[in-house]
Structures are given as structure tokens and as C-alpha cells.
Design a protein that fits this description.
- It is built from six helices and 13 strands.
- The chain has about 190 residues and is of the alpha/beta class.
- It has a single domain (about 5-190), classed as Class I glutamine amidotransferase (GATase) domain (Rossmann fold).
- It has a nine-stranded mixed beta sheet with strand order 2-1-3-4-13-12-11-8-9. Strands 6-5-7-10 form a four-stranded mixed beta sheet.
- Strand 1, helix 1 (about 15-20) and strand 2 (about 30) form a beta-alpha-beta unit.
Amino acid sequence: MRVAIVKYNAGNTASVANSLRRLGAEPIITDDAEMLASADRVIFPGVGEASTAMNYLQEHGLDNVIRSLGQPVLGICLGMQLLCESSDENETSCLGILPLRVRRFPKNGLKVPHVGWNSITDLRGPLFRAVEPNTYLYFVHGFYVEQNPWATASCDYGIGFCAGLTYANFHAVQFHPEKSGSAGELILDNFLSL
């Protein structure tokens, strides 16, 4: 199986690649359109700021490549947010694959960004097969995807937000599975098995 990780100057690519290697995959980290299109699975990780990331994707034609992918795709953290229509972060227009808005956490007593371990609930779908409800996973984010009909996991950090979703062949998680120990590896393995 060929697994490609999108290279776009905002991805946590080394940690994701190391997690995949532990699962027996040998990923390629690439921004080549043909390699991404021909991969069996594509992972779209992300750490950073939405408008800078979107500018890079657009300048390198990766925005259209990602929109056109037909194989299973996994967005992680910023990668999940960039799949949406728009983000409150610098009023950014995103990829528009999901008709959703990314919201800024309110600062009403919350430490923002949300950093650390938090539990997920309302699990459904193949990405969360054999994952126990209330499993703790590692989050680092100041923005969140609003609740929606495609949610496959939820989390609460002062307010409830979407921690996982599936929309056609696009799957996404707000937490970092590559930094979430055995539970995160199980979720990555489930993605490879789709």
C-alpha cells in the first residue's frame, strides 16, 4: 500500500511518518500531484496558521490536487480545519470540501490554545473502530470545527466541538493521533484499513 503525506510547510510530517512506520507502512512525504493522486491513502497533517498554509497550497497547486483526491484522505488538526469552507483565523477561505466554518475558542475562562490530553465521545464510523468512548487523545489548537452532521467524534473544552468527521472519502481528526500513544496508532491503523 502506498501512503502519501502532503508536504506543504505546515505539516507535522516527521511524527506522522514515524507513527506510520511503526504500523508497517513506508510513507512518502511529497507535494507532487501525481504521487498524491496515485497513492492508496493520503494524509493531510497540519500545524500552524490557516491563511499561511492556504497561501502555500494555492501557490503550489495543492489546493486543487487535494480537492480532486478520490482515495481515503485523513486530515489532522490544521489539515482537518483546512478541509472546511472558511476559518475565523485571519478570515481565511479554506478548501471548501466541507460546508463548515472553523471557529475561534472563546476566551471566557479557557486557556487558549487548547493544549493537552482530552477525552473524545460520541464515537462512530470505521476510523474509531475498537476505540473506547472517553479515550484520551492529544490536542493542540486554538480553533475548532463546529459541530456538524458528519461528526464521528466529539470533545468538550468549555464548549463541545467536532473532534472527528467523515465526509465521502475525507476523514479528519482535530487531535494528533501521531502524538496520542496506542489509541492514536489504532486510529491511524483503522485509517490504513479503510
